[in-house]
Design a protein that fits this description.
By secondary structure, chain A is an alpha+beta fold. Chain A is built from 3 helices and 5 strands, in the order E-H-H-E-E-E-E-H. Classes of the chains: A alpha+beta (about 80), B alpha+beta (about 350).
């Protein structure tokens, strides 16, 4: 048996519930959250990834460039 | 065997069912594709099944591809991917796990996006995991794009290939113009059958040789120089002379193409044996002997004689495959890998070889 690498994901239909649990659903709907990489405004339509950063939870937009930066360079590269 | 049959006779259908379940549990990886089809049929029933169908389909595509690459060159893609859907994560829980990244996976109609996102998230940890930190950003990205494109081609996911080019590669190239050149080089390697068999293989060993050293610019520069050296080999026109050896701190090899008509006419395969002897004298670690079509047997003979003379050891079986040559013709190729046996006392020139 080969070792497994786990990629954590959120399915579209669970998205709102997860965002509500994380306490960022209202802010996202209000357009108050920006992408941690390209700084564009992120809403429910263009949300790409969610990750913890320090004591906060940050998101990236669904542009592949931004998701890739978050997944390859790690969360640390987006801090601050 | 008799015991198993006896046990089956005693317990009948239940025994059979237990054996089937055991086989299924032990070889689950191999059943991922048919299981994905079953989930797909059930996906209209509820969200739960739909989630499972998406997960199993993405996993089965990526894992069967990574297994096939890893079978060709062991430890280049040593892991399976497990897509784990998070349905109820609390804020405190997410903040506690510092490096957890949740990637969004969309509904079935966005299959193209889903597989590309999942593969690109998997590549940095799943492809060349031991060498990754020693590759420069451009080379790492180009490897990931090439591997992803290979996966999508293998699964005949044409719309996802278009998505990958338009939405991922082209924007990335606009930001890093150098990436375009490396992507083209890796594509050429792939077309000629050198990408996995030589390039990924050498880069894999690079990570093993460097061990746990702190990654420096020297490491990154060596891997880039190696790719450029291989590109000279890949672009070589028939009969054209070029540098066939690469002698870096961690990668040292020679690539011999058995196929120069005048060399074979005047020296036979002795010329190639001398080249191997020379490489061994220079302390190079590995030789790749390649040939096409009717010269495949000459390459095999060269490797056999080199091993017989104690110059090196053939590693694995000769790899025979179809690939495109520099003129765009599909031809039968062979690639034989030999580990050179270097002796600290061996002088660079060891006398003239006489062909058997």
């Amino acid at each position: 048996m080969r070792k497994r690498v786990e990629i954590k994901a959120i399915y579209d239909q669970d998205l709102e519930q997860v965002l509500m649990n994380l306490g960022i659903l209202d802010k996202l709907i209000a357009g108050e959250i920006n992408c941690a990489v390209c700084d564009c405004s992120v809403g429910l339509d263009n949300l790409g990834s969610i990750f913890p950063s320090g004591n906060d939870i940050r998101v990236s937009c669904d542009s592949d460039k931004c998701i890739r930066i978050v997944t390859t360079k790690g969360v640390a590269s987006c801090n601050g | 065997m008799d015991d198993v049959l006896g046990w089956l006779a005693q317990y009948g259908g239940w025994g059979f069912l237990i054996i089937v379940l055991l086989i299924f549990a032990l070889c689950y990886e191999k059943f991922e594709k048919p299981v994905a089809k079953v989930y797909d049929l059930l996906s209209q029933v509820s969200t739960r099944w739909r989630r499972r169908a998406i997960k199993t389909e993405i996993q089965s595509n990526i894992n069967s591809f990574s297994r096939s690459i890893d079978k060709e060159v062991p430890n280049t893609m040593p892991y399976n991917m497990e897509l784990k859907f998070v349905t109820d994560v609390e804020r405190a829980e997410l903040l506690k796990t510092k490096n957890m990244i949740l990637v969004r996976i969309r509904d079935r109609k966005h299959d193209d996006k889903n597989i590309v996102h999942a593969m690109l998230a998997f590549c940095p940890v799943g492809v060349l995991p031991t060498s990754r930190i020693y590759l420069d950003d451009c080379l790492g990205d180009a490897i990931d794009f090439t591997v992803t494109r290979k996966l999508l081609s293998a699964t005949q996911h044409q719309s996802a290939i278009t998505y990958l080019h338009r939405e991922v590669i082209e924007p990335a190239i606009k930001e890093k113009p150098d990436l375009d050149n490396i992507c083209r080089i890796l594509d050429r390697f792939d077309d000629q059958g050198l990408f996995t068999k030589v390039v990924l293989r050498e880069l894999r060993d690079f990570g093993a040789k460097v061990g746990s050293r702190y990654p420096t610019e020297t490491h990154k520069s060596e891997t880039r120089q190696f790719v450029e050296y291989m590109d000279v080999i890949a672009k070589r026109q028939p009969g054209e002379k070029c540098e066939t050896s690469f002698n870096g701190n961690c990668i040292s090899m020679i690539f011999l193409m058995v196929g120069t008509a005048d060399k074979l006419a005047t020296k036979g395969i002795t010329g190639y044996l001398q080249a191997i002897q020379w490489a061994r004298g220079r302390g190079l670690g590995r030789v790749y002997i390649a040939a096409r079509d009717s010269l495949i047997s000459e390459a095999e003979r060269t490797a056999y004689l080199a091993q017989k003379r104690g110059l090196g050891k053939i590693v694995g079986k000769p790899k025979i495959y179809e690939a495109t040559d520099i003129r765009g013709l599909r031809r039968k190729n062979v690639l034989i890998e030999m580990q050179l046996i270097t002796s600290p006392f061996a002088p660079p020139e060891q006398g003239k070889l006489i062909e058997d």
